[in-house]
Specification:
alpha/beta, 10 helices, single chain, about 220 residues
């Protein structure tokens, strides 16, 4: 059953304006078994701009051995014809990724971390707090270079393996309070939480634990 959302249930702290970021050229293509040509990626980004998107996450400067689908990040960014009014963002996981991004004139970068301990260890090979704190020098260097920085702190409310996400403390807490954070949809929209979690493949036991903890 599809979840139904009630616009009247939106949180009172919902901002008056939001910015949609199209991530298909990065998040979508990195999950594909087949690697598209650089030219095909350029055409995809051009069509997204034609459709009216003003912020497009074009690629990621991750280790090419880890994500071979995005191994052409430098070539892609060199080929893109920048349009006025469109931002072409890239994901950078660390200092090396930032170096690569800046070398091709990137002006808009995103850093990604997770508030979930298990998710962070699986995807970043670091503890949650270690990953969050480690981005501080990356963000500082990017800003010093004149780049715009978007910080994405995922899974702030709940994660299937961890359950309720523990509060972030210490130096990493500053990162987690950035205005660009992404909240879990079921809390932000005020919809039927259990129904949404079911759609996200949370099993009945996990949902029961979350209900008991008061998270849903």
């Amino acid at each position: 059953m599809r979840a139904s959302y009630d616009a009247r249930a939106l949180r009172t702290d919902t901002p008056p304006r939001i910015q949609l970021v199209e991530v298909a050229p990065r998040d979508g293509l990195q999950a594909e078994a087949r690697t598209l040509s650089t030219e095909a990626k350029v055409q995809l980004i051009e069509r997204l701009a034609d459709a009216g998107h003003t912020v497009i996450e074009a690629t990621s400067f991750v280790n090419p051995k880890t994500v071979p689908q995005l191994a052409d990040a430098e070539d892609l960014m060199r080929r893109l014809k920048r349009r006025p009014g469109v931002r072409y963002a890239v994901l950078v996981p660390n200092d090396k990724g930032l170096d690569r991004a800046l070398s091709v004139g990137t002006e808009d970068v995103a850093v990604f971390a997770s508030a979930s301990e298990s998710y962070s260890r699986k995807n970043l090979n670091q503890s949650r707090d270690g990953a969050l704190a480690g981005y501080a020098p990356v963000i500082r260097r990017a800003k010093d270079a004149g780049a715009r920085v978007r910080a994405r702190d995922m899974l702030q409310t709940v994660e299937q393996e961890d359950g309720s996400t523990a509060p972030i403390t210490g130096p990493a807490a500053k990162f987690s309070r950035t205005p660009t954070r992404i909240r879990h949809g079921s809390r932000a929209l005020g919809a039927d939480n259990a129904e949404i979690l079911g759609e996200l493949e949370f099993d009945a036991a996990a949902i029961a634990r979350l209900k008991k903890s008061g998270m849903i």
